[in-house]
């Protein structure tokens, strides 16, 4: 298993610098940016995307990238479900913010949850998500499957500008997990939108529950911009275009993201140190932020043998990597030989070391470059009482330093 390339993790922006700025974010008066109509554009874009059948999807240039991204989400969701179950949670409730057309419904079903609230800014996507959920249940009844079933509700709302709590069917809705997959970056348009998003993520989350997601890696995005000769960079799979190269505001640092066939929208750099600071306001404690390539390695190379086995089997079942060299009757996803140079080198290396493998799993370099623009993250809602104690400890440490 070796993806097309393994870019360096070094970021263009120093983490320490980012943390310094983040500290100032927490204390300075934050200027609220004017609300723009970007949300409307984003909703229109996702509403206009056509649902494609399986045959169409397999012909897509980014078939494996999409499967790979789905695999990453499956691993993250599986991991967190395991944690909340180990903490003793039963009848698990989940909020999926920016659920789209319901790409994660099956994952929640397999995770044996009890209730799911799906919300998205795009009304057509929510309708399609609900249809998908209904037909999933019909299939279950028809085949008399023993698959667990869960209840669900569907809400069209801008999670960066609306308080979701007032829209849930039951007043006392609480979640074990809040998930925001490939959507969090949209809230970094302004401070108030990040704030509203985090309030939504946290206020109905049970103490000890998790806020998880996948989003863009601003360090990597800026690093590639700095390395580029102009304001735009990418390959035949993705393209990122900025208006400027040197100055980025904490919020509203906009660029256009194009991912072939699926995304063409304004997005915003997610400034993680600021996010971590604002999250504290809502009792959300930062747990981890891991680049997709590191997370892939964690799951497939550095885990215990059972997890490793599960992860590898799932990679195969989800067709999350492309077979190189391809089977006779198949074409590779990319026609460019350089897209498979790393895979070819890796295979030759393995063979020269005496391994008997004749094929390996990979992603074309162009797809791998797109996959490595992302991170998975997790925050945990502090159990009641812990925040107060932490604040007290920090205060007394501060006082001790002054003395
Ligand atoms: C790339 S799609 C991801 C969909 C789904 N989470 C998945 O992983 O398949 C991003 C989704 O975020 C939604 N979105 C963008 N801005 C949003 C906002 N302000 N509030 C709620 N949803 C939003 C879009 O409509 C779109 O469905």
TrEMBL record:
The keyword Metal-binding does not apply. It is an enzyme of class 2 (transferase). GO terms for cellular component: nucleus. It comes from the Eukaryota. MRNA binds at residues 69-70. Its main location: nucleus. This is mRNA cap guanine-N(7) methyltransferase.
